[in-house]
Structure formats: structure tokens, C-alpha cells
Write the C-alpha cells for this entry.
Amino acid sequence: MAELWDPLAPEFVRDPYACYARLRSEDPVHYVETPGFRFFLVTRYEDVLAVLRDPAYSAQKFPEQLVADAMAGPDPSFAALARAVSGMMLIKDPPDHTRLRALVSKAFTPRVVEGLRARIEAIVDELLDGAAKAGGMDAIGEFAAPLPVIVIAELLGVPAADREKFKRWSDEMVPFIDGTLRASGLVQAARGAQALEAYFRDFIEVRRKDPRSDLMSGLIAAHERDDALSQTELVATAILLLGAGHETTTNLIGNGLLALLRHPREWGRLRREPGLVKSAVEELLRFDSPVQLTSRIPRRDVTLRGCRMAAGVEVNVVLGAANRDPLEFPDADRLDLARAENRHVAFGHGPHFCLGAPLARLEAQVAFSRLVERFPSLRAASQEESRRPGLVLRGLAALPVFF
């Protein structure tokens, strides 16, 4: 079955779910070995939850020596990339993960996020006003991508004039996070990290002298109060919030809109029943998950479904496969905006459950509500699909639509 799992093959990029179905059925803990890489793929819902819950698996994906060597190396851009990676809570275990998450989580509670609703609605309306005048848009480049960038930039306190370069540098790092990087791309990713590090170091100094009510000022205050955040962690957290705060939400809105356009009955259902939007967003997250997999490293030899996984060998839990598992989701390949008991794992599970889930949900709810309300006859300009290849992230490069 090794030849079936080819995540860069055009047919897999277009539709990975047939492959996932075979893996779940025939080899749910699947070993992959290629030159330079060896890892396991875990595809059943029950097993994905088991791995993400179990402290025997570490979230620390990069060997400490590799990070240390990069930091000590002669190339300052690679040192910046290593610092950015090593300081992110995404790949930390307790107690560091617990400490960092506690500091940032206050900005993403459901109550705080709900307070952003009016501003998110205004941003969505502004973006759609421009598209309405043109009679159509690229739903990715003109809507799904700028919306979360504007929101997270404003949350951090970044000036509007800096958003474009802010996003460009973040986009340069995405292939590194996504696992699709080639050697030439690593240089670009490192340069993006270096530019972001320099930007946020300068921005931190500005906010130290002139604190505001934004998230960056709050993180700086925590750093200065009791050294809860090191300088490296402070910068890395800002970079993580930027990347995680826009890339996944862009994919959620893009994948979700494409799914609705390909299921016109469900589009019409949402138009007729606007109160269905919360349930709809959960189903769109499940149906075509913006994050397809996440990784863990066994601290010791472990066994799952009779398969022995050695300590240190990467274990990829495939969230996209788990979300189509028919043992958990009846008629799993059907899009049902009113699906009950929708315990999807699109935001992960366990201690590393996505911190920004309430914000992503709200942005998507507002986006889809406004789209069906303002453009009930919205349609795709083409049946062709323009997807970006990816191991971790699943998203569209473009989605032209007409009103």
C-alpha cells in the first residue's frame, strides 16, 4: 500500500479521502519508509484520539541537537528559523506548553472572541462590498485569505500598513510547517523567519514604550512581570499566532465554500435556515479538514493495534482520515450541515487542542452567513480545482466565483 500514499500526487491532492478509506480498512497503523524518512500513519478515529491523549507521545518534533546546531551555525536566517521553531508552544510539552498556553489563552476565550464579532462582521462586509462591485472575486485571494490576516493583525496590534509584508513573510514559512519544503524553499522559509523575527523584535520595543490594549502588549507585560515568556518565546509566539491565525482559517473558509458549491442542496439549506450556520461550520471542518495531520514522537517503544512503534520514530495522526471514519460518523462521506454528535478532530484533541478554535469558528460563521445572505446565487467560475500540495495543510490556491 506504500504506493497508494503519495501526498504530492495530483489525484491525492485533489481527493485524499479514498486513500484514507483504504488505509483505515486495510492498514490503520501504516508504516512508511522512504530515503531519509520513516514514520507511521494513524488513520482511525479511535486511534487518533488515543495517540493525542497519551503523554507517552511527545509534541517535540525537532531534535534538540538539530535546533542547537542551526542556532550556532553561520547563517543568521537559519538561526532565526530555529529560534522561531524552538519557541513555539505548538511543539512543546508540559510544563512549558502549559505555561505558554495559559498566557495566550486569555485572548481566545469564547467570551473575548465573541466581543470581536462586530469588528469581524465589518471586515467581512467591507471585503464583500468590493467584490460585489466587481460582480465576482477570487474567494481565496480576495476574501478567505485577507479576512483572518486582518483579524489577527488587529488582535496583535500590528499597523494596517504592515499587513501585506507581514503575510508575505508568514507565507514563506508555510511550506516548512507544511512538510512540503524542498531544499531551495528552506532558504526562503529561513529568510521569512528572519524577517518576522526582526519585525517583531522592533515591534516589541515600540509596544514596550507605548503599550496598548492589544495582545502583544499583554504578552510583553507577562514577560516583564515574572519572566513567564523569554524573549525567544515572545517572538516565536507572535510568529505562531500570525501563521496559525490566518492559514488554517483561510483553508476552512475556502474548503468549506467549495464543498457548499459542490453540494447546492446544502447551500440552499443554509440560505433557508441561517440559524444552521454553527452546525454547518462544524460539518465543513469535518468534511474537508483544513489541517490534515499532526505529528507526535513516542518517548518510548509503544504498541498500537499490535503494531510496535519504536521510540523516536514519528507518528502522524491523520485528522482528515479520522474525520471520515464511518465507525464514528455515519455516512461519513456525505455533507450534512445539520449532522448531530459531530465530534470531529479538525482542531486536534487533548492538551494541544487548537487555541484559536473559537476565533476560527466565529470568522467562518460570519463569512458563510454573509455569503449566503448577500450572494444567494453565488457559483464557481470553473469546475477545475486549484489546490496547493500539502502534507499538513489542505487548501485552495484560488477559487474564482461569480455572483
Q: What stands out?
A: Residues 88 and 237 are 6 Å apart (CA to CA). The chain has one domain: 10-402.
